[in-house]
Write a structure and sequence with these properties.
The complex is a heterodimer of chains A (about 375) and B (about 575).
Chain A (H helix, E strand, L loop, with lengths): L1 H11 L16 H10 L2 H18 L1 H4 L20 E5 L5 E15 L4 E19 L14 E6 L18 H37 L1 H16 L2 H10 L7 H32 L2 H8 L4 H37 L11 H6 L4 H6 L5 H23 L6
Antiparallel strand pairs in A: 1-2, 2-3, 3-4
Helix pairs in contact in A: 2-13, 3-5, 3-13, 5-6, 5-8, 5-10, 6-8, 7-8, 8-10, 9-10, 10-13
Chain B lengths: L11 E13 L4 E13 L3 E5 L6 H8 L7 E11 L7 E3 L8 H6 L4 E4 L3 H4 L6 H12 L4 H14 L5 H4 L9 H13 L5 E5 L7 H18 L2 E6 L2 H7 L2 E6 L2 E7 H6 L4 H12 L18 E12 L15 E12 L3 E5 L6 H8 L7 E6 L7 E2 L5 H4 L6 E4 L13 H13 L3 H14 L16 H13 L5 E5 L7 H17 L3 E6 L2 H7 L2 E6 L2 E7 H6 L4 H8 L25
Parallel strand pairs in B: 3-8, 3-9, 6-7, 7-8, 13-18, 13-19, 16-17, 17-18
Antiparallel strand pairs in B: 1-2, 1-4, 4-5, 9-10, 11-12, 11-14, 14-15, 19-20
Helix pairs in contact in B: 4-5, 4-7, 5-7, 7-8, 11-17, 14-15, 14-16, 15-16, 16-17
Classes of the chains: A alpha+beta (about 375), B alpha/beta (about 575).
Chain lengths: ~375, ~575
């Protein structure tokens, strides 16, 4: 519509140079994209969720009440505790004093199983920014002695999402798992992106037999069933590797398979842009090949690539989770959501400790949030084509 | 402006009263159609003219109640007299757009012909299937009867061998044939009103002339009312009985065609007519053609041939398709300071010729001798792409589509500065200064450099494209259909600007186009192309007024004259190619 308005202005003053111009359409592409994105309600909500998840991943040591490997054998399979926000004071009035109740533990002599009953009489006060033992933040950059949330008195048993087989706090472990699972997604996609841009770009820009070869390779990789392929590659890793090396190896395995879709998208963009008049014009303007690609063509599909990336991350996260769940991905003591879900593999877990599924919930929420954000970005990517 | 009176003539088919269609985009409301009145009468043709964005198409769609979202008919009436041949008056604007009642009207009482016949015919159904469906939606006929009717109506629109054509798919038809099939589909239920939305804009002039002839004869035969939407005053003069001029969503002037052409009242109509009439003769600015001196050619093209090889599939060495010969031994010479027009219909090879000379395409054979001042002549045809690069600063190109030729992600400053940066490496300050000069030279304010191209209209964008072309002070400019994407009222302005620049900077100029009017307006010499060959060349006046080759004659005779008094005076010449030439 902008063009029509402009045309009328021009037609109204045909003889003089055009001085009056409409003020519309002066916004840059990122601004237009943001306006369009904001109209997608689900995507906006998901963006907030996603930002929270990323904050958790970045500050997991500070947010988790306990270290990931701290265990208390007394509380194996302890159920989640309800958080009470208000307490009665001496005179019987309600006061803001969050606490959780303690457990009464009885051991079944036949099954040798612990049974937990909430003990209303015991109250463990909890709060924000509580003191704790010093712990290394970001691999030991500094040693803070404060946690975001936790028991006011060090050593009180607080299991917001219950405890696992060894009496480890599941909430803390999910928080730690966020960092590993998200970073596998991000690093894996970055690697895929590099492969995808280079190979897809060459394929689309050069065309001819190069394009043919790369496309056939992509089709070959896509035709392989992915799960057995991952399993094969993961099984080929020596079992005596340290966990950190396994972590990187898994990331590389995932991205070696994940680049194909990105490469296809980028090739398609190159193919459609290659014939655009403005690219021909840039060539006639004497621009060099790299300048044509990076200055003239790339800005037109950057937004699309961002959208594609946000849709590719969930696939990575799911792949890592699946591999780890099957026991072929990351190995303890590294904590990822997939590793945590290994605990929920047997019937006993389902019947006695259903809270062991909560890492699965974290996966679902993250994947959905990323998908919605990706959808919103894809819709917003082309504000000019309306 | 006439207001529909209450006592309507008996032959009224559709009456549009106070119709308003608005587009509410959330941020602002666009009044695409703003309180218009029209009367469509049996056996008469109403032409609705106006430039793009004036609301012509939305008016047509509002009559059928098929307004695209977020548009909405917000007021007024569309009164259909005697719907389904029963007495009474029906207000179409008040019906549910998806309801049964309006669907019964569409195709039976009122039908529509669209601009782009390929896009409005289904590619996966035969022409016959599509026409049969249109019939059986409205009439209780058996499949065989409907098919017979389809063949009959295809014969009526003069499609050769209709009993065979009925089984063809749209892609097997040429553009003109498709538009005929579309017309057949619109006519098959004998509607009393046919709305044609720019049905000839996408067609070549010769095909356009045939479709216009066809519509006139069909109207004489069936006596339907015709609402014809166009932006071309030549077409209006050719076909209209009444004219409604639209501007800014309003009908600014309405009346019989002779009255509109002889005594236009509204300033917009006057301007529209004068810009059309300006293109009827050579521009005063063009001046005399420069005297050609001996061997003062800047460009010497000999034996230029371009053969497009069909795509070979991955595994086979040979391809099934024949190679396409887009240019066949083309010779021409461009003198220094001359404006040469290359004219032809789509598929004649004129665009390929321009792109081969620029070396955007690698010609298969021949020579392109380019002789810039103070430099030795080079044969561009044989050079590797790297060696052509220096020549690109001496010869520049103006593109057809002002929307796709400017990078949407770059500001106007970046767009115009691009050739300067790459060739001279000026400082940012100097670049800005030079771009400001260039913008002012093409009639845009210097502040325009900070905006993105989508903030500008088509005409303004084309000015930006011109500024980019002249930035390097070139010696040769090739303009490929530089004005065909613009509204008629803007064409003359852009052409005048080009003429000024060409004479001022003594640039040699090749103007590629299909519009004889534009060519005559500015070119010194014309080359007529057909089927990849040059069929005629010579001074513009001579070729336009006394065409020698039969193809040129047919081309010139097909151009609609913007004067209703001349209607039917020009004899149409049909060019039928000799079999040997194909």
């Amino acid at each position: 519509m902008t063009d029509n308005l402009g045309a009328q202005v021009e037609a109204a003053a045909p003889t003089q140079p055009v001085t009056a111009m409409t003020l519309q359409g002066s916004a840059s592409q990122w601004k237009l994209m943001w306006w369009q994105f904001r109209r997608h309600k689900m995507a906006m909500a998901s963006l907030v969720v996603l930002l929270l998840i990323l904050i958790v991943a970045a500050f997991c040591e500070f947010i988790a009440p306990f270290p990931a490997d701290a265990f208390t054998p007394r509380f194996t399979y302890a159920p989640p505790q309800r958080v009470h926000l208000f307490d009665r004071d001496e005179s019987g009035g309600l006061v803001w004093r969050p606490y959780v109740n303690g457990y009464k533990v009885t051991i079944d002599p036949v099954a040798l199983r612990r049974t937990f009953v909430i003990d209303e009489a015991v109250k463990y006060p909890i709060g924000f920014l509580v003191p704790s033992d010093p712990y290394p933040m970001w691999g030991g950059v500094f040693m803070p002695e404060t946690k975001l949330i936790g028991p006011l008195h060090k050593g009180d048993p607080v299991f917001l999402l219950g405890a696992d087989r060894l009496g480890r706090d599941l909430f803390s472990r999910i928080v730690y798992g966020t960092r590993i699972s998200m970073s596998i997604g991000l690093i894996g996609v970055t690697l895929s992106l590099v492969l995808g841009i280079v190979l897809g770009g060459i394929s689309g820009y050069k065309g001819g037999w190069v394009d043919n070869v790369i496309q056939r390779v992509i089709e070959f990789i896509l035709s392989l069933p992915t799960t057995p392929l991952w399993l094969g590659l993961a099984a080929a890793m020596p079992s005596n590797w340290p966990p950190l090396r396994i972590y990187f190896a898994i990331t590389i395995i995932l991205s070696l398979i994940g680049w194909t879709n990105l490469a296809r998208v980028i090739r398609g963009k190159f193919l459609s842009l290659r014939t655009e008049d403005f690219v021909t014009a840039a060539r006639l303007d004497g621009a060099s090949e790299p300048r044509i690609i990076f200055r003239h063509m790339a800005p037109s599909f950057f937004s699309h690539i961002i959208a594609e990336i946000s849709l590719a991350i969930p696939a990575m996260i799911l792949a890592e989770t699946a591999l780890s769940f099957l026991g072929l991905g990351l190995q303890p003591p590294i904590v990822s959501w997939g590793v945590l879900l290994q605990e929920a593999q047997n019937i006993r877990a389902i019947s006695t400790a259903p809270w062991l599924f909560t890492p699965g919930l974290a996966v679902v929420v993250t994947v959905l949030a990323l998908n919605f954000v990706g959808d919103g970005l894809r819709d917003a990517a082309d504000p000019y084509r309306q | 402006m006439t207001v529909a009176s209450t006592d309507v003539p008996a032959d009224t088919v559709v009456e549009v009263r106070n119709l308003s269609t608005w587009f509410d985009t959330g941020r602002h409301v666009l009044k695409a159609v703003d309180g218009i009145n029209l009367t469509l009468r049996r056996g008469r043709t109403l032409c609705v003219v106006g430039e793009s964005g004036s609301g012509k198409s939305i008016t047509a769609r509002s009559i059928l109640n098929i307004v695209p979202k977020p548009g909405r008919i917000v007021g007024g009436e569309v009164l259909l007299h005697a719907p389904g041949s029963k007495p009474g008056v029906l207000n179409l604007a008040a019906l549910d757009p998806k309801g049964r009642r309006i669907r019964a009207i569409r195709g039976r009482d009122i039908s529509m012909i669209f601009q782009e016949p390929m896009a409005s015919l289904s590619p996966v159904h035969t022409i016959g299937q599509q026409i049969v469906e249109a019939i059986r939606l409205h009439r209780p006929l058996s499949k065989a009867e409907a098919r017979a009717r389809a063949i009959e109506v295809l014969a009526q629109v003069k499609i050769p061998r209709p009993e065979r054509a009925v089984n063809r798919y749209p892609f097997e038809f040429s553009g003109g044939m498709r538009q005929r099939a579309m017309t057949a589909m619109a006519l098959v239920c004998e509607p009393r009103l046919v709305i044609a939305d720019e049905p000839t804009t996408a067609l070549d002039v010769t095909t356009q002339a045939e479709i216009l002839d066809l519509m006139k004869s069909l109207q004489a035969q069936n006596g339907m009312a015709l609402m014809f939407i166009t932006h071309d005053m030549g077409v209006v003069a050719e076909i209209a009985d009444d004219v409604a001029v639209m501007y800014h969503g309003k009908v600014v002037e309405q009346g019989p065609v002779h009255q509109i052409f002889a005594a236009p009242q509204h300033p917009y109509t006057q301007r529209l007519l004068s810009s059309v009439l300006a293109l009827e003769s050579r521009s005063a600015k063009a001046g005399l053609a420069p005297k050609p001196t001996q061997d003062d050619a800047i460009l010497d093209v000999t034996g230029l041939t371009m053969i497009f090889q069909p795509r070979r599939s991955f595994f086979s060495r040979k391809s099934k398709d024949e190679p396409v010969k887009a240019l066949d031994n083309v010779d021409f010479t461009l003198k220094r300071g001359e404006i040469l027009g290359i004219v032809g219909e789509s598929g004649s090879g004129k665009t390929t010729l321009g792109r081969c000379v620029m070396r955007i395409l690698q010609p298969t054979g021949g020579h392109i001798l380019f002789k810039p001042r103070a430099e030795p002549a080079t044969d561009l045809a044989g050079l590797p792409l790297k060696a052509v690069k220096p020549a690109w600063s001496k010869m520049r190109m103006i593109f057809q589509d002002p929307f796709s030729s400017l990078n949407p992600r770059m500001t106007v400053l970046q767009v115009i500065a691009e050739p300067l940066r790459n060739n001279f490496g000026l400082s940012p300050k100097a670049l800005e200064q030079r771009v400001a000069e260039l913008l002012e030279r093409v009639g845009l304010p210097r502040e325009a450099m900070w905006r993105y191209p989508h903030a500008f209209s088509g005409g303004q964008r084309q000015r930006i494209g011109i500024a980019r072309a002249i930035a390097l002070k070139p010696e040769l400019i090739i303009a490929d259909e530089a004005t065909s994407a613009l509204d008629v009222s803007l064409r003359a302005q852009v052409l005048d600007l080009l003429l000024d620049l060409v004479r001022e900077l003594s640039i040699s100029f090749i103007f590629i186009g299909h519009d004889i009017g534009v060519i005559r307006y500015m070119c010194d010499r014309v080359v007529v192309m057909h089927g990849g060959k040059i069929v005629e060349s010579g001074p513009t006046d001579q070729v336009c007024d006394y065409p020698q080759h039969p193809y040129t004659q047919s081309l010139i005779s097909a151009i609609p004259k913007p004067d209703p008094n001349l209607r039917g005076t020009t004899k149409r010449i049909r060019y039928i190619e000799a079999p040997a030439a194909t």
